[in-house]
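> example.struct
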């Protein structure tokens, strides 16, 4: 087949009309919008919170939980909480469990806030009837918002931890004439009336005192290329909330422990993950 040496104006004009028509159909067609919308659906779990642990942040966090779950906020009872903070004291993750009623039904709630600086953050909420958890964490007379507001006071720098990631856990329990003493590498603090003070000894008298325990664990982490960072535990801090133990006795002292006592020796470990080629592992030293 011999191609024409020159393209006639009629052929050129017809080609332009066809191209313009195809482009117009694609632009006006709903298909591109559907495809774009499919890949840009808003995340139903998205939550945007300024990450530092402050009272305003914790209030917004709890209000979002209450609104999304549809619970009666006044019925909420604290269960337990796990928190991960970055070295700059910003939130990485908060896992909070509590009990509350919704439409007259008593339920156990699990919430998970994961902060992502590039995509704001995500808040996941799930619940089940409490009958499914007969042996679950005992309920507290305290509300979750009380615990979250206390968290805003327990910045790691307040208890002498700086420039290190930390894990914080909180739970409430009944005490029976309990005594706590500060131990090496295990600082002891009291949280009361909005302030945190180091103590040498805390003695809780009675049998029905409900004490909130805060455990703050500092970590030493090393990067492992291709894997999650490897972290080992270092200093552990116990903070008792004194608002619930009015009859306790306190022996105030220094909460500082010489750093050389708490320095652990090298720790060797191995990180592994599954791949399509099998299991891949890497040794590390922290």
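> example.seq
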């Amino acid at each position: 087949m011999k191609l024409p040496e020159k393209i006639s104006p009629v052929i050129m004009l017809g080609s332009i009309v066809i191209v313009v028509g195809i482009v117009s159909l694609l632009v006006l067609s709903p298909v591109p919008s559907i495809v774009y919308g499919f890949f840009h659906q808003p995340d139903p779990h998205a939550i945007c919170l300024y990450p530092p642990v402050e009272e305003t942040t914790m209030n917004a966090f709890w209000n979002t939980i209450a609104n999304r779950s549809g619970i009666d906020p006044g019925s909420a009872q604290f269960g337990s909480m796990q928190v991960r903070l970055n070295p700059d004291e910003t939130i990485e993750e908060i896992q909070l469990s509590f009990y509350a009623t919704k439409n007259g039904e008593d339920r156990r709630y699990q919430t998970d806030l994961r902060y992502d600086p590039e995509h704001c953050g995500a808040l996941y909420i799930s619940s089940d009837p409490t009958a499914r958890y007969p042996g679950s964490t005992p309920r507290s007379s305290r509300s979750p918002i009380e615990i979250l507001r206390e968290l805003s006071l327990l910045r790691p720098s307040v208890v002498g931890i700086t420039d290190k990631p930390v894990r914080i856990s909180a739970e409430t329990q009944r005490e029976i004439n309990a005594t706590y003493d500060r131990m090496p590498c295990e600082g002891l603090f009291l949280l009361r009336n909005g302030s945190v003070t180091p103590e040498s000894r805390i003695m809780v008298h009675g049998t029905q005192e409900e004490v909130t325990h805060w455990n703050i664990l500092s970590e030493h982490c090393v990067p492992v290329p291709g894997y999650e960072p490897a972290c080992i535990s270092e200093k552990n801090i116990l903070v008792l909330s004194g608002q619930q133990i009015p009859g306790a006795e306190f022996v105030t002292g220094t909460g500082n422990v010489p750093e050389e006592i708490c320095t652990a020796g090298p720790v060797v470990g191995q990180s592994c993950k599954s791949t399509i080629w099998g299991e891949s592992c890497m040794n590390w030293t922290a």
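> remarks
Confidence is low (pLDDT under 50) at residues 31-41, 257-261.
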